[in-house]
Design goal:
mainly alpha, 13 helices, Diverse_Substrate_Transporter, EamA_dom
């Protein structure tokens, strides 16, 4: 998790951005924390849906570059990391964090181009599920692992399928592994960088890492104003807005409740995929998503009892 970008001071006292940040804070304070979490989930999934729409004109790697680049620019406006005085360990964690962020987004978008949103997000969710199970280490965790395995098995294209591919599942699994690493690296960066500066540092590094691939595959199309505008929107919806909402919620609610609500993300992705992209899942796919959600809920509650 990250510190709310809107709670950070700005360098330019004459800017109107702090006033806008104050208005945003008051608006967020009026919303229940559970509502903030759900808004964050919807923001991420709507951003993913818009990104998938861009795949018709840009390859996934180019869309990832637009998303991360836009997010990094916005984060630099609200939380500039100070590079002076960083130790080599700080640099190592920051660079690894950024590289993981780049690979996580690239592999997820490659999965998204080959799978329905609900399935891609559900498989990616195995990453944080694995972190929760590892933190708990109870026999009951075998049930959650089994449920998750059943879910993946139900999603697998055992018969020829136009909407689901083994390559897409592979990319989603890589994204899930990166998400697990992201959780651990986020905690490490949070202990070494103040506020949101660790995330900003990582996003800038991520943008640099992904730029050669994104620019090469996107080419001159990346200069189209309408695509740049959509890319900015995807960056805001997928990164800046949900990060801010999630941390605002975490400051006002127990972490285990937050984890339970976040477990609903695969279902939200499936619904957004249906409503925005017209992606219709069959009964088996919905059952698979249900298994992974149940596994995530169980692991989250078990992890909370272990921690408390």
């Amino acid at each position: 998790m990250t510190v709310n970008a809107l709670d950070r001071p700005f360098d330019d006292g004459k800017s109107r951005l702090p006033r806008l940040g104050s208005l945003a804070r008051h608006a967020a304070d009026a919303i229940p924390p559970s509502g903030l979490v759900m808004l964050g989930i919807l923001s991420v999934q709507v951003g993913a849906a818009f990104a998938k729409e861009l795949f018709a004109v840009l390859p996934p790697s180019a869309v990832v570059f637009l998303r991360i680049g836009a997010g990094a620019l916005v984060m630099l406006l609200v939380a500039r990391p100070k590079l002076k005085g960083l130790s080599w360990r700080d640099w190592a964690i920051g660079l690894t964090f950024g590289g993981t962020l780049a690979l996580m987004n690239l592999s997820f978008y490659e999965a998204l181009s080959r799978l329905p949103m609900g399935i891609a997000v559900a498989i990616e969710f195995l990453g944080p599920l694995g972190v929760a199970v590892a933190a708990s280490r109870k026999r009951l965790d075998l049930l959650w692992v089994s449920l998750a395995a059943i879910g993946v098995a139900l999603m697998a294209p055992w018969q020829e399928s136009a909407s689901v591919s083994w390559l897409g599942i592979g990319f989603a699994l890589v994204a899930g592994a990166c998400w697990a690493a992201y959780i651990l690296l986020s905690a490490a960066a949070g202990s070494r960088f103040p506020g949101t500066t660790g995330l900003t540092f990582a996003m800038v590094v991520s943008a640099v890492f992904i730029a050669p691939v994104g620019v090469t595959t996107g080419g001159a199309d990346l200069l189209q104003p309408e695509l740049l505008l959509i890319g900015l929107g995807v960056g805001l919806l997928s990164s800046v807005i949900p990060y801010s909402l999630e941390l605002k919620a975490l400051r006002r609610m127990p972490k285990h409740v937050f984890g339970v609500l976040m477990s609903l993300e695969p279902a939200a992705a499936a619904m957004i995929g249906l409503l925005v992209l017209g992606e219709i899942l069959d009964v088996l796919h919905w059952a698979a998503i249900g298994c992974i959600i149940a596994a995530s809920l169980g692991a989250t509650r078990a992890g909370d009892k272990t921690g408390g």
